[in-house]
Amino acid sequence: MSAETQLTIKSVHAVRRSTMRRDELFALCNRFATNGGRLVSLWATERQADAEPEYVLSVALQDADGMQVVEALLDSAQPEYPDLSGIFPVADRLQRAAFDLVGVRAIGGGERRWLRHAAWPADAFPLRHAPMPAPGESSDDYPFVRVAGDGVHEIPVGPVHAGVIEPGHFRFSVVGEKVLRLEERLGYTHKGIEKRFESLSLENGVKLAARISGDSAVAFSWAYCSAVEQVANCSPPQRALWLRALLLERERLANHLGDLGALGNDAGFAFGLSQFSRLKEDLLRTNARAFGGRYLFDALVPGGIAVDLAQADVPDLIAEMDTLAGEVALLHGIYDNHAGVQDRFVGAGQLSPELAKRLGIIGLAGRGSGQPWDLRCDLPQTPYDELGVNRIVRAQGDVAARVGLRFDEALESARLCKRLLAELPDGPSAETVGDASDGASGYGFVEGWRGPVFVALTAAAGNRIARCHPHDPSWHNWPALEHAVIGNIVPDFPLINKSFNLSYSGHDL
Amino acid sequence: MLRVLKQIAHVGLLSEPLPPPNDGLRVREALRAEIARVFARAVNIRHVDAGSCNGCELEIHALENPYYNLQGAGIKFVASPRHADLLLVTGPVSRHMVEALKRTYAATPDPKRVVAVGDCGTCGGIFGESYASAGAVANVIPVDVVVPGCPPTPTALLQGILAAVTAGERKQT
C-alpha cells in the first residue's frame, strides 16, 4: 500500500515521495503519462537489510504539480518489475542500464545489454555489494539491428571519432548517401561513477558530481549540493543561491557560444567558429579572473559556494554582458542572412513536435521541437522564482530551430546575468553543513544548458554516500537523434549531431 | 558579406605568441632529438577521448580559437590516427575504451609521441582505477608527456604538446 511522505525543502520545490507495490507503479506511470507527465529518471538500488539484500526500483516523475519519486520493493530472489518502456520510451535504455548495474529485470523489456560491454562478467552487477570479479576483456559483439534490401549497406563510425569529441559508436544503414536507419551504441565512457560515489563523503561527492559531464559542471554540482542540503537539513544563504544561478547562466552562455561557432563551422562557415570561439574564450578568461577558474568545477560546495565574487568585479561583469549581447545579436543577423548557412540549417535533422512528445524529448532539443519543459519556469527555485525567466520554444524541430534557440537563450542568459549581478544579495556565501541522518534521501534538479539534470542521493552513517544516482538529459534525447537523422544524407550527420550536442560521459556514467 | 568583412576588421588579429615548451612535463626521453628533427614542429595530432568527462575536450577545442591559434604554429588535428604524429589522449581510460585506444596507438605510424591530458589521463584523477576504469593512460599505452590539470589550461596544453615535439630548448628564429 502506498505511504506518502512530504519532504519539505527550503528554497527548492517539495519532492513527493512514496512507496508502492510494483503493479501499482505501472498503473501510476500510465496515469501520469496520460495526464501529460514525464519520466525524469529510473534507477535501482541494492540495500543491505539484516545482511539480506533487497532490491528497490525508483522512478522519478514530473508533472504540473511538481516532482515525485516512487519506490517499489522487488522480490529478493527474483528482482523483476513490469516493463515501463511502452509508457515512456526513454525507459528502455534506463531499464537495460539498471539490469547491467544492479541486476533487476524489466519483464518483457529489452534484453540487450546497454552500459555493460564486456569489461565485467555478464553475471556480475557492479552496484551490488558483493565484490566484483577481476576485469575482463573490453570488446564484445553487440547485436545491431540489420537493415536488408537492395543497395543497403552499413557505415560503422566510432568509438574513436574523426573530430575532438567523446567516444560512442554509430551504425548507419544507408542507400547511396541517404540514411535509412541509425543505431547508437553507447557505454564506452562508463567509468563507474555511481560506484565511486559510494566511497566518498557527502562533502567530497561534489567534486565527482562536477565531473559527471564536464560541460555541465555547475548544473550537476548544484543538483548534488541541493540533495546534500536536504539530507543534512541545511539551507544555503541567499547570496550563494544567486551566485550559483550566475555561474549556471555563464555555463549556459559558454556552451551556447561554443555550439553556435561549431554549428557555423559544420555548415562550412569558418567565420562563425572564429567569432564565437573568441567570445567564449573572453567569457572563460573572465571566469578565471573573477571566480578563479575557466571552468567552474569546484565553485559550488554543499552549503553554498566556494568562490565569492568581489564587489569590485561586478561592474566589469555587467559591462561584459552588454558587450556580449551586442556581439551575439550582430552575429545572429549574419547567420540569418547567410544563404549558404541557412541552406544547411533549414529542414536538416527535423523532429516533429508530435514525435518529440511521444519520445519524451526534453531540454534544449525538446524546446526546439515544441516541448516547453524548462525547470527554471516550471519549478523555479531561488533565485529563478524572482527572476522570471522567459521560456523560449520553437516548433520547427530542425537544425535551424536548435540554432535559433541557442541565439535567443544566450541573450536571455545575458539578461539574467545582468539582473543577478545588479541585485546580488549581501551576506555570507556559505552555511555550515550539519550531519545527515543515516538513510535520509534528497533530490536535486537543475535546468542545465542541455536540459534538466537530476540527482538522487541517499546518505549512509558518518556522512557517507549510500547511493547517488545522477541523471543527464542526454538519456532522453539520444534516442531522438536516431529519428532526427532518418532521410537525411550522411554528410549532414555531424551538423545534426552537433545541433543536439548530447553528452556521452553524462549518459555512460 | 560586407557585414562579415566589417566584423573581421573590427575584431582584428587576436593571436598570442606561443608559450615556451614545458620540459618538466616530459616523462620519457626516448628518441627526442630524432623525432624533433623529423617533425620540425609541423605536427599532426589525433585526439582520443578514452573516457574523459569532456572537460579536457573543451580546452583542447580552445587551442583552435584565434587567441591560441594552434594551426598558426604548424600543428593541426587530423581525422585518422594513420595521418597522425602525436596522440593527445584524455582519460581516465575506461575499460570499454582500452581496446580502441590500443588499436588507435597501433594504427599511428612511427615515430609517434603520446601526450596524456588532464589529472585523469595523468593518474586516473577522481575516478581512479575500478571495475570500469583502467586509470592513467600510461597503464594502457606508452606515454611521453603528461599535462596535469582539471582541466589543463590551453596554455598548459600547448606547453605539453611543444615539449613532446621539440628537442630541449626551443630554437630561436
Overview of this protein structure:
The complex is a heterodimer of chains A (509) and B (173). Chain A has 17 helices and 15 strands. The N terminus of chain A is likely disordered. Chain B has 173 residues and is α/β, with parallel strands linked by helices. In chain B, strands 2-1-3-4-5 form a five-stranded parallel sheet, sandwiched between helices. In chain B, strand 1, helix 3 and strand 2 form a beta-alpha-beta unit. Chains A and B meet through helix 3, helix 7 and helix 8 of A and helix 1, strand 1, helix 3 and helix 4 of B.
Radius of gyration of chain B, whole Å: 17 Å
Query: How do the strands line up in the largest sheet of chain A?
Result: 1-2-5-4-3
Give the overall pLDDT of chain A as a whole number: 93
Structural class of chain A: alpha+beta
Main sheet overview of chain B? 5 strands, parallel
Helix percent of chain B reads 25-40%
Overall geometry of chain A? globular
Order of the strands making up the biggest sheet of chain B: 2-1-3-4-5
Q: Biggest interface and its residues per chain?
A: A-B, 56 and 51 residues
Q: Whole-Å distance between the termini of chain B?
A: 38 Å
Strand content of chain B: 5-15%
DSSP helical segment count of chain A: 17
Q: Which structural class do you get from the secondary structure elements of chain B? A: alpha/beta
Question: Concise description?
Answer:
The complex is a heterodimer of chains A (509) and B (173). In chain A, 39% of the residues lie in helices and 19% in strands.
